[in-house]
């Protein structure tokens, strides 16, 4: 189960970022607002024991999604959507592990 404090921090970050996006604040400012939540998410991931692998997988997936929100080329509204996705992921009962897929087809010649 995900720490309630972490979820509260995430919801607060979403609220603050949403307000900033609505005001037209720059991306860097929006990312700064979410940075404390991101750091807490990383700490929680490191501290979660291997025996609670479902929660750990969920935290790792959420951390990866937060990393997508931190890239310099993202728009503030897209960053907000990524952050909202992190909160949805943390609330879900289905821990998501990264899925790698092979794309079939195409012509590749050495």
Comma- or semicolon-separated keywords:
single chain, 110 residues, mainly alpha, 67% helix
Write down the Rg.
16 Å
Number of helices: 4
Distance between the termini: 48 Å
Which sequence of SSEs, written as H and E, runs from N to C?
HHHH
Low-confidence segments, given as residue ranges, are none
Please give the oligomerization state of what you see. single chain
Mean pLDDT: 85
Question: Percent of residues in helical segments?
Answer: 55-70%
Q: What profile does the largest beta sheet have? A: none
Chart the SSEs and their pairings:
Blueprint: H1 4-23, H2 27-47, H3 53-69, H4 76-91
Helix pairs in contact: 1-2, 1-4, 2-3, 2-4, 3-4
What does it look like?
The chain has 110 residues and is an all-alpha fold. The protein contains four helices and no strands. The chain has helices spanning 4-23, 27-47, 53-69, 76-91. The chain starts with a helix and ends in a 19-residue tail after the last helix. The model has no long low-confidence stretch (mean pLDDT 85).
